[in-house]
Design goal:
Elements (H helix, E strand, L loop, with lengths): L2 E6 L7 H14 L4 E6 L1 H4 L6 H18 L6 E5 L5 H10 L4 H5 L2 H7 L7 H15 L5 E3 L5 H18 L7 E3 L34 H10 L16 H14 L3 H7 L5 H25 L3 H30 L5
Parallel strand pairs: 1-2, 2-3, 4-5
Helix pairs in contact: 3-12, 4-7, 4-13, 7-8, 9-12, 10-12
This protein binds tryptophanyl-5'AMP (TYM).
The site of tryptophanyl-5'AMP has 25 residues, from β1, α1 and α7.
Family: Belongs to the class-I aminoacyl-tRNA synthetase family.
Subunit structure: Homodimer.
Subcellular location: Cytoplasm
Length: about 325
């Protein structure tokens, strides 16, 4: 059976980029696979975090997974630091990874650029991510386009490890959608929408008030042509809006282009706001209904227990392979 693993960092308010690129796929894949969805708090601390804020956000992300439709009876929803094997395998794999390959990681280059001091954890971040994935014999990893390089590294580490120590890890495949793998910023549609970008107007949070996101959509950068056409190179703004619309409405981009022939951008934007208000409204309503912290903690504890059973076996296998004594 397929085994699916993915994670989201509790490092900001999740955006519609996180939803359309990743979480929406989590919901679809939980029906056809044994799925584990993690809140990767150990990854979030690779950059400075406010402790109280981090604690609050980690629970919020789990709550948001559920509000978006992840079903805890079908999928295992847990917090990374609750399963200590993530850190343990992370270390074991650091001893089987090379600085040369980490130096090539573009996310590290972007996040460390211009900084005077950079935490070691930010550099070894992709190895911890490899540990997350390999711990569960994962076959498929639903992610946005920006995580592709990390999954390729995971495969490289696993292949090398298997070659050196014998068959230990399953090789995972990235699961990246054709549309929506990279939702772009509303103010600068040649850049990825990011939960940590400075300009609030560049992104829409999943939990954002419709009146607020309406303004952002209406102000979203397009072009002066006033022709609705999907062309990412020449019309990145309009193409981005079409992609977002298509994913929220469940209607193909071609069909939307046909539907809006001869109409201006204003109509497209207005209708998009309506579709988003409806879809995000459902998520927001469910989110507020799930606000009992004791209930959430119960789900997280039971899920962590399930995850631990698998993770322990993998770590034991790795320790045996590497020659560590087990009693
Ligand atoms: P993170 O927290 O940055 O993002 C979570 C997920 O959202 C996707 N995503 C997007 N997809 C489309 N358009 C966008 N604008 C957009 N922005 C974000 C990301 O690709 C990701 O799938 N390193 C990971 C977290 C992680 C992980 C893992 C993922 C840690 N361990 C193991 C998969 C498997 C990250 O920083 O995601």
């Amino acid at each position: 059976m397929k085994r699916v693993f993915s994670g989201v960092q509790p490092s900001g308010n999740l955006t519609i980029g996180n939803y359309l690129g990743a979480i929406k796929q989590f919901v679809e894949m939980q029906n056809e696979a044994n799925a584990l969805y993690c809140v990767v708090d150990l990854h979030a601390i690779t950059v400075p975090q406010d402790p109280a804020e981090l604690r609050k956000r980690s629970r919020e992300i789990a709550q948001l997974y559920l509000a978006c439709g992840v079903d805890p009876d079908k999928a295992t929803v847990f917090i990374q630091s609750h399963v200590k094997e993530h850190a343990e395998l992370g270390w074991l794999l650091q001893c089987a990874s090379y600085m040369g390959e980490l130096n090539r990681m573009t996310q590290y280059k972007d996040k460390s650029e211009g900084k005077q001091s950079v935490q070691v954890g930010l550099y070894t971040y992709p190895v911890l991510m490899a540990a997350d994935i390999l711990l569960y014999d994962t076959t498929h990893v639903p992610v946005g386009d920006d995580q592709k390089q990390h999954i390729e590294l995971t495969r490289d580490i696993a292949t090398r490890f298997n070659g050196r120590f014998g068959d230990t890890f399953v090789l995972p495949e990235p699961h990246i959608q054709e549309f929506g793998a990279r939702i772009m910023a509303l103010d600068e549609p040649t850049k990825k929408m990011s939960k940590s970008a400075e300009n609030e107007g560049s992104r829409i949070a999943i939990l954002e008030d419709p009146a607020v996101f309406k303004k952002k959509i209406m102000r979203a950068v397009t072009d002066t042509e006033n022709e609705i056409r999907f062309d990412e190179d020449n019309k990145p703004g309009v193409s981005n809006l079409l992609t977002i619309y298509s994913l929220f409405a469940g209607v193909g981009v071609d069909e939307l282009v046909a539907r809006y022939q001869g109409q201006g951008y204003g109509n497209l934007k207005k209708d998009l706001v309506e579709v988003m208000t409806d879809q995000l409204g459902t998520i927001q309503k469910r989110y507020s209904e799930l606000s009992d912290p004791a209930e959430l903690d119960k789900i997280l504890a039971a899920s962590a227990e399930r995850a631990r059973t698998i993770a322990e076996q993998t770590v034991n296998r790795v320790k045996d392979a590497m020659g560590l004594v087990r009693l």
